[in-house]
Design goal:
Layout lengths: L2 H13 L2 H8 L13 H15 L4 H13 L3 H14 L8 H11 L3 H18 L4 H7 L5 H9 L2 H5 L4 H11 L5 H15 L3 H11 L5 H7 L5 H8 L5
Length: about 240
């Protein structure tokens, strides 16, 4: 094992706290595999470790990130996602397949999904808009976290007013998805799009509200003025 990874693992074990670990469990259905180390401390370890490995060739650095994911530990996944975010422009369009494999293989809770997809995948999409076709394909994946990834990878672009048509396309495909984390994911995507395209998002919600799960609908309209939220929540069928 690379000495930096070994040092990180050792420090996470030393810093593990049962009270913190138990508090994390309350936010995740089915539990969370973690050491119990607070996020601020994990980010500090990520920063220290990245200084040691950032000069490695891209392939070697990606191998280290995958080894962190393979542990199954939440804190190590956070460090891997932080490192891939900091790698930034090192990613090219052909890396999309690798990112998808990691999501399908290692992402098993919403925090791992969002930490990785919001930044690493989202940044790649903004540099290579043609990769959105991959997100559309993810909406049909058996793995619900891959389907959630299709939406939450557009969170930051949507917040910036980008890819509105693609946002609606993905939301339409996921509209009646039965998994609550997928519903929350695409609802969140619509909410971010509403920051710059409130009228368009409201129209989408009004057009689809009879079929949209309440969970997704509530997320989508969260940033809208109260009169618009009330309008969106009114349904013909009660």
């Amino acid at each position: 094992m690379h000495p930096t990874l070994q040092r990180i693992k050792n420090r996470l074990q030393e810093l593990s706290d049962e009270t913190t670990r138990q508090s994390f469990q309350r936010f995740f259905k089915g539990g969370l595999t973690c050491y119990g180390v607070k996020a601020a401390v994990v980010r500090k370890l990520a920063k220290e470790g990245f200084r040691e490995v950032q000069s490695l060739p891209k392939k070697e650095l990606l191998t280290l990130c995958e080894q962190l994911y393979q542990s199954g530990m939440s804190e190590e996944a956070m460090i891997a996602a932080t490192w891939t975010d900091w790698m930034g422009a090192a990613f090219v369009r052909d890396d999309m397949a690798l990112l998808e494999r990691w999501i399908d293989s290692y992402v098993d809770d919403w925090a791992k999904c969002d930490t990785f997809c919001n930044h690493t995948v989202g940044s790649l999409i903004m540099r290579y808009p043609e990769c959105i076709s991959s997100l559309v394909a993810w909406t049909a994946a058996p793995n619900p976290f891959v389907r959630r990834a299709a939406a939450v990878s557009l969170i930051i672009p949507a917040r910036r007013g980008m890819f509105l048509n693609e946002t609606f396309k993905i939301a339409s495909i996921l509209l009646i998805d039965q998994h609550d984390l997928v519903q929350k994911g695409y609802g969140w995507m619509l909410k971010e799009a509403s920051r710059t395209h409130q009228e368009e998002v409201l129209s989408f919600v009004l057009e689809n509200k009879e079929h949209m799960p309440r969970t997704a609908l509530r997320y989508a309209i969260e940033k809208m003025p109260e009169p618009l939220r009330k309008k969106a929540m009114m349904r013909k069928n009660g």
